[in-house]
Design goal:
- It contains 9 helices and 8 strands.
- The protein is α/β, with parallel strands linked by helices.
- Strands 7-6-5-4-3-2-1-8 form an 8-stranded parallel beta sheet.
- Helix 1 packs parallel to helix 8.
- The N terminus is likely disordered.
Length: about 230
């Protein structure tokens, strides 16, 4: 079986599962943005995923992303940065990525805005929330959301489009859904608020092992890696 067939078939299966979960949650399949998480995957596989119909491509590592960008890997689809973002890498990705999903600190908000102003652009971002309060993960804590919204509203060069999270994964589904539900509540709460530079559209949560549960809980953007790129 060729990579092209394998990736296309995997995406078809993922799309079917997304459609089922979307309909069960009272939405249309097209309401869900499918981001192909392409960490470690070569440019030709990324292009195959784009050809097979993903909505966007997400990368975790700055240098890998820049290398594939030079090869034209992302042509035709939006590019998202979804990995841990170090402060010293901000200047390399602002203006390259259509959406930086993993903005997990006040300092990053300021640095991204400053760089975007220098380039004369507005950089779209999501705020990453450490919903499981895991010390090894980046992201703001839920109680910091008002502080971040206030900061975003005063920062030129950025537009916040929503929230992103990587919740803990448990064997028991109920615990996973607890974190998804908590993220949805945060998302709904900020949708009701009015801040400059904030236009809440996306709730990005759910990966290969959890995306259907995330969609059922209210996610409208999922980041899928192994379910797309692994051969079946």
């Amino acid at each position: 079986m060729s990579n092209i067939a394998s990736i296309a078939e995997n995406i078809s299966r993922v799309r079917d599962a997304i459609a089922d979960a979307a309909i069960r949650s009272g939405r249309e399949p097209g309401d869900i943005t499918l981001v192909a998480a392409a960490k470690t995957k070569p440019a030709h596989m990324v292009r195959e995923a784009i050809g097979a119909g993903v909505d966007a491509v997400g990368e975790n590592r700055v240098q890998e992303m820049l290398g594939k960008h030079e090869q034209g890997a992302y042509h035709g689809k939006p590019l998202h940065f979804i990995g841990h973002l170090q402060s010293n890498k901000v200047r390399q990705i602002v203006g390259v990525c259509d959406l930086i999903e993993s903005v997990g600190s006040p300092a990053l908000v300021g640095l991204i805005g400053k760089r975007a102003v220098t380039l004369g652009i507005v950089q779209n971002i999501l705020i990453e929330v450490n919903i499981g309060r895991e010390p090894q993960k980046s992201g703001i804590l839920p109680e910091q959301i008002e502080e971040i919204l206030g900061l975003v509203s005063q920062t030129k060069g950025i537009k916040m489009l929503g929230l992103m999270a990587i919740p803990p994964i448990y064997e028991k589904n109920e615990r996973n859904c607890y974190y998804f539900d908590a993220m949805l509540q945060l998302f709904v709460d900020i949708m009701e608020k009015k801040y400059d530079n904030v236009s809440v559209r996306f709730l990005s949560m759910g990966m290969s092992e959890s995306y259907t549960d995330a969609i059922l809980a209210g996610s409208n953007m999922v980041r899928i890696g192994s379910a797309i790129f692994s051969k079946r």
